[in-house]
């Protein structure tokens, strides 16, 4: 096996996870080369202390310990140092396979904690455990209510700029708690690199989630196996995360004001279409109004999220090769999507 095709295995242990934040000062637990694949797993939130079958009272008590020490509860496997990744590059993460464990939980907190989309309407709070049928890829929510599973990693991110310590709970330019349900197996995430090695971490496994994640949680679980392949992209410049599926490109905006998140995601969509399809900005803006769907990624992570779904099917030509796993088209030059100037 060549070095570029090497497979690494990374097990989530107390020594290979960090909880609550992204920081370039966290030492890497694994070093890989561009093109390498990592087979990893993840813990549930709160250093694996969140578990199926626990009570709401137990959850609140455990959550309070993190609040008391001003620490977030997202437990992440990593960081992974990618040789050759430098500030200004893009890290491409191909999500090859995602297998959750066979149970998960959903909960919302009592109103007094003021967490979630409608805390004032649900004073008591609730905790629900789910058995996940991994053969049928579904779970029973209630009698007569069956939900198909669509596992994804809620948190995927690289280190922020040197000197910054960013909460893992709030998504931003480095990725983090993106909570984008489109990023399932077979899709790709592109992240701007801010420090040498990129320092990628992931966690917050979800078995399924609706756009919005309105009560504050998806079906929270752990990933038994996550297979990710990494590439350093010198030919791309991004200011914030970009996603790609078989059918869409996805621009993402994060801001505490949902209206501002809309503007960020929309401006990135316009730039992507204009630069990669050789359309004027006015035409790209018009095309977004006709064919691009804006979706609410989540409303509960501090920085709210909007993602713009750009359908590939409407483009019969001028599909750039630069995004790596596209299957047709012509070379239109490096992809650059930067509203305020890429580093």
CATH architecture verdict of the largest domain:
Sandwich
| CATH H-level superfamily of the largest domain | Acetamidase/Formamidase-like domains
The strands making up the biggest β-sheet line up spatially as 1-5-17-7-15-19-20-22-21
* Biggest sheet details: 9 strands, mixed
User: What is the CATH T-level topology of the largest domain?
Assistant: Jelly Rolls
Mean pLDDT: 94
Strand content: 35-45%
Order of helices and strands: EEEEEHEEEEEEEEEEEEEEEHHEEE
What is the helix tally? 3
Question: Any overview of this molecule?
Answer:
- The chain is globular.
- The model is unreliable at 324-332 (pLDDT under 50).
- The chain is mainly beta and 343 residues long.
- The protein has three helices and 23 strands.
- The strands form six sheets. It has a nine-stranded mixed sheet. Strands 2, 4, 6, 12, 14 and 16 form a six-stranded mixed sheet that branches. A two-stranded antiparallel sheet has the order 3-13.
- The protein starts with 6 loop residues before the first strand and ends in a 6-residue tail after the last strand.
- It has two domains: 3-238, Acetamidase/Formamidase-like domains (Jelly Rolls, Sandwich), CATH 2.60.120.580; 252-337, Acetamidase/Formamidase-like domains (Endonuclease I-creI), CATH 3.10.28.
């Amino acid at each position: 096996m060549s070095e570029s095709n090497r497979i690494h295995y990374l097990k989530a242990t107390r020594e290979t996870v960090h909880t609550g934040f992204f920081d370039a000062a966290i030492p890497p637990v694994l070093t890989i080369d561009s093109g390498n694949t990592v087979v990893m797993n993840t813990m549930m939130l709160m250093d694996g202390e969140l578990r199926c079958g626990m009570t709401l009272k137990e959850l609140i008590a455990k959550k309070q310990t993190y609040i008391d020490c001003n620490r977030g509860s997202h437990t992440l496997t990593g960081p992974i140092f990618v040789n050759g990744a430098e500030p200004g590059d893009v890290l491409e993460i191909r999500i090859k396979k995602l297998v959750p464990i066979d149970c998960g939980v959903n909960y919302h907190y009592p109103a007094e904690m003021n967490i979630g989309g409608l805390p004032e309407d649900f004073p008591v709070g609730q905790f629900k455990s789910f058995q996940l049928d991994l053969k049928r890829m579904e779970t029973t929510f209630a009698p007569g209510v069956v939900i198909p599973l669509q596992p994804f990693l809620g948190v995927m991110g690289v280190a922020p700029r040197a000197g910054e310590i960013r909460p893992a709970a709030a998504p931003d330019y480095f990725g983090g708690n993106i909570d984008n349900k489109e990023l399932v197996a077979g899709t790709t995430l592109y992240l701007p690199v801010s420090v040498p090695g990129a320092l990628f971490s992931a966690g917050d496994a979800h078995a399924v989630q609706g756009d919005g994640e309105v009560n504050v949680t998806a079906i929270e679980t752990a990933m038994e196996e996550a297979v990710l392949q990494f590439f350093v992209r010198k030919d791309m410049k991004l200011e914030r995360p970009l996603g790609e599926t078989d059918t869409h490109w996805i621009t993402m905006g994060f801001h505490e004001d949902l209206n501002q998140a809309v503007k960020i995601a929309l401006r990135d969509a316009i730039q992507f279409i204009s630069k990669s399809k050789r359309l004027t900005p006015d035409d790209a803006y018009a095309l977004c109004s006709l064919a691009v769907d804006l979706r609410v990624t989540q409303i509960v992570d501090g920085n709210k999220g909007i993602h713009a779904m750009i359908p590939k099917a409407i483009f019969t030509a001028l599909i750039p090769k630069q995004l790596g796993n596209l299957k047709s088209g012509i070379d239109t030059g490096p992809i650059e999507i930067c509203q305020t100037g890429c580093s």
